[in-house]
């Protein structure tokens, strides 16, 4: 099992083979997933602060989609494409882009996670 923490939203133990997005859903963390997890949007964009070596390698498809994401950093991954391959501890930050997408997909959550001016 791997332990994954979503900064500000809690943590969970998940089995090897789970994706970051699946882990977020287990925790109840507000990570967007507009395309349903098929690598066709960038709304599941996260920053992996700890444990990136435990994740599957980034494939070209993920890299191409991340090119279209906002505020991409060295630690950026798509939550639906990042599978946990080894036991250990991970720490993940959900991007503003992803929080906004989550709110758009869940109208009842609007204004809850992203501060608006
Ligand atoms: S949910 Fe669309 S790329 Fe991950």
Q: With helices defined by DSSP (H or I, 4 residues minimum), what is the helix count? A: 3
The structure class reads alpha+beta
Please give the radius of gyration in angstroms.
13 Å
User: Main sheet, how many strands, which sense, barrel?
Assistant: 5 strands, mixed
Note the overall shape: globular
**Number of E-state strands:** 5
Poorly predicted sequence stretches spanning 5 or more consecutive residues: none
What share of residues is helical?
A: 10-25%
Major beta sheet, strand line-up: 2-1-5-3-4
CATH topology: Ubiquitin-like (UB roll)
Order of helices and strands: EEHEHEEH
Bound ligand species: FE2/S2 (inorganic) cluster
Count the domains. 1
What is the CATH homology-level superfamily? Beta-grasp domain
**Overall pLDDT:** 96
Q: What fraction of residues sit in β-strands?
A: 15-25%
Termini separation comes to: 41 Å
The CATH architecture can be named as Roll
CATH classification class: Alpha Beta
Give the helix/strand layout:
Blueprint (H helix, E strand, L loop, with lengths): L1 E5 L3 E5 L5 H8 L17 E6 L9 H7 L9 E3 L9 E7 L1 H10 L12
Parallel strand pairs: 1-5
Antiparallel strand pairs: 1-2, 3-4, 3-5
This protein binds FE2/S2 (inorganic) cluster.
FE2/S2 (inorganic) cluster binds next to loops.
Keywords:
117 residues; Ubiquitin-like (UB roll); five-stranded mixed beta sheet; 5 strands; 21% helix; globular; binds FE2/S2 (inorganic) cluster
């Amino acid at each position: 099992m791997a332990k994954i923490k979503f900064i500000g939203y809690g943590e969970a133990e998940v089995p090897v083979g789970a994706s970051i997005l699946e882990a977020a859903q287990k925790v109840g963390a507000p990570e967007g997933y507009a395309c349903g997890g098929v690598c066709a949007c960038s709304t599941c964009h996260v920053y992996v602060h700890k444990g990136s070596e435990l994740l599957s390698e980034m494939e070209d498809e993920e890299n191409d989609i991340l090119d279209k994401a906002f505020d991409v950093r060295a630690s950026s991954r798509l939550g639906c494409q990042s599978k946990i391959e080894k036991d250990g501890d991970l720490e993940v930050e959900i991007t503003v882009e992803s929080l906004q997408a989550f709110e758009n997909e869940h109208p009842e959550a609007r204004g809850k996670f992203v501060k608006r001016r």
